[in-house]
Amino acid sequence: MKRVTVSLPDDIADRLEAVGNVSAYVAEALRAKMDDRTLRQVMEDRGLRITDSGVDRAREYLQRRRTQWQDQKASGR
Amino acid sequence: MTVTLLMDASCLVQYATSVDVRSIALGELVSAAGEDPEAVVGVPATCLAVALDSAQVAPDQMRELVSLFVNPHVRLLGGPLAVTFIQAVVALGVSAQVADLLLCAAEHEDAMVLTFDPVVVGAFEPSARGRVLDLGRDW
């Protein structure tokens, strides 16, 4: 167990003052943040084989459709 | 919270019940959206309720749906104001999940909408249809 000193914004510090066990509270929050299971891993756990090329294709599709939509909005059609 | 994609009930049912090419395409889209650490894939609460209530989703498949929400990049959307809006729109003959989806789309105006359901596509005004990704047609 290590002791760590951190600087926090006022709103977070105020919130922590109301918490009983600050160390446990912060540790739990950080553990949730450190859960680095990506969505891709969640999908693969589900049995969906997600490939780099597939994600590249999906990213391009999303970008293209988003651009088309933004253009459509801008032109008021 | 930056919502980049909205998933409807048809996407959740597809995700829970199949590992076919459409589910993989859906997974790739959601994974691509989740690459941005600030990005969130939003699911209107009513859409999840409809999916869980669907006869197509077997009890053991419900776990698959719920596990999706363990990841911080997938969030349920909705609240008390949403309920009021949804009740009003449902009174006009629109389904609750479509009403919730429209509300979430209005609240997150930069988010694209994912669906396999032509009814959902048709629920959006022609001027807003560009944001609806009709996966049933595209895949």
**Distance between the amino and carboxyl termini of chain A:** 60 Å
Widest sheet, order of strands of chain B: 3-2-1-4-5
Indicate how many domains the architecture of chain B comprises. Answer: 1
User: Count of helical segments of chain B?
Assistant: 8
Instruction: Find the count of extended strands of chain A (DSSP E, 2+ residues).
Output: 0
**Oligomeric state of the chains?**
heterodimer
At the fold tier of CATH, the topology name of chain B is: Rossmann fold
Shape of chain B: globular
* Helix-strand topology string of chain B: EHHEHHEHHEHEH
Tally of individual helices of chain A: 4
Give the number of DSSP strands of chain B: 5
How would you describe this structure in keywords?
A: 77 residues, mainly alpha, B: 139 residues, alpha/beta, Rossmann fold, five-stranded parallel β-sheet
Please provide a written account of the structure.
With 77 residues, chain A is an all-alpha fold. Chain A has helices at residues 10-17, 22-34, 39-45, 52-75. Chain A has a domain at 1-35. Chain A contains four helices and no strands. The termini of chain A are far apart. The mean pLDDT of chain A is 84. A five-stranded parallel β-sheet of chain B has the order 3-2-1-4-5. In chain B, helix 7 (118-123) links the parallel strand 4 and strand 5. Chain B is globular and about 35 Å long. The N and C termini of chain B lie far apart (29 Å). Chain A binds chain B through residues 32-33, 35, 37-40, 42-43, 45-51, 54-55, 57-59, 61-62, 65-66, 68-69, 72-73, 76-77, and chain B through 5, 15, 19, 23-25, 27-35, 41, 64, 67-68, 70-74, 112, 127, 130-131, 133, 138.
